Sequence to fold (479 residues):
Amino acid sequence: MKYEKMNQRILKAVGGKENIESVYHCATRLRFQLIDETKADDETVKEIEGVLALVKSGGQYQIVIGQHVGEVYKEFCQLMEEGDSSQVEVELQDAEEFRKEVKKKKITNSFIDVISGVFTPILGMLTATGVIKGILALLTATNLLSSTSGTYQMLSIVGDCFFYFLPVFLGYTAMKKFEGTPFIGMAIGAALVYPTLAVITSGEALYTVFEGTIFETPVYIEFMGIPVLLMNYASSVIPVIVTCYFAAKLERFFAKKINDLFKTFAVPALTILISIILAFLIIGPIASFASNILGAAFIALFDVSATLSGFLYGALIQVCVMFGIHWGFVAISVNNLATLGFDPITIAGLASAFGQAGIVLMIMLKTRNKKLKSVCGPAILSAMVGITEPSIYGVTLQFKKPFILGCIASGIGGAIIGFGGVKQYFYGTNGIFGWLQVINPKTGFDSSVVAAILACIVSFVSAIILMQIFGKDSVPDTK
Fold:
């Protein structure tokens, strides 16, 4: 195996199999949930060849690897399966102990851990389909493809399929994160986007509840005399996650109470029956109202001063990435796309990758250190397609001032994005592919698209100028 030695050293340094509650990966990091972090040797981890950095944040032990983290993770899992196979199911053996540990954590850490655990497995597909939607918007905006053509319809299905049925996929990852059966979560998600719901809500309402308030909702059906507030759960985020949280608890409860003879079918049957009914009667409507309020609140914040808000988000997002706490913004972005159809908030960080790339370019031109130069080239390419960890951990952060200058340059780009009223219409990545996200699928190119591209260019150029003026002496030029 290509990364066998590195993985063996990582496994030993984090305290061995018996100290690993769970492990998964995001775009650049191995994210461990350790039973006891004090058993991990931080300094040894940092010294392992191939490890860019170590971050302990959000209740996770994060080892930054780089873009090849997927290959490393795959081999690490194979290493975990060797020897005592009982260690493969550590999370089942130590689930009760782990839950006690979670209660001791700060709420913020638990929240970040849950969000990253739920969204990390789907980000690749979410980004991939988002890029496809962006390319489709580009083709129609340039009149290369008609929105009435069969080709457009087929490509639209490819781009929409994942996001439309997002509750199904989130049901899987959420239940897995909450230590339940993933297929129960998928069933819950499928129920929320059941096709018949669209037929029901297209008919005449029986009556309306909460009239005259922001929660006014028509009632089309009742369940045992109780009004069912049917919402549009396609592409929704919060309802399925909250429902799965309760479903996981119900499943564990029934698993303890029901005789083994009936457990195979009775536990999932009772779990989905109660969970789905609760989802439609209580959890779904409340979570949907909360989603709408959350989206409106952030829109209101940007309305106060889009330029200032854009600057702050653009300048600070890389700091959040550095600590691995940017997952909360991922949830906000996906929620806004589902409830509003666009997101004007997280798109303010689009230029941040260009800010870091400009700084790294200047460092590469300045230094005569061959090892540092060899890191800079790939880091710049990674940043240009939206992956900034190699730039941050491999280059700018070790010199401190360049990292700060990169954040300032990113903030300048974010301010332009905020001022220009740029909105994100699909979930995607930063970097040059991020330009596809800002093309309005209905109106095509407008001034906001120009503002987004201009912001990235200005951020890149600002980084070069700031580095030339304030950071030229911050990088050693020794060989």
Notes: The two ends are 33 Å apart (CA to CA).
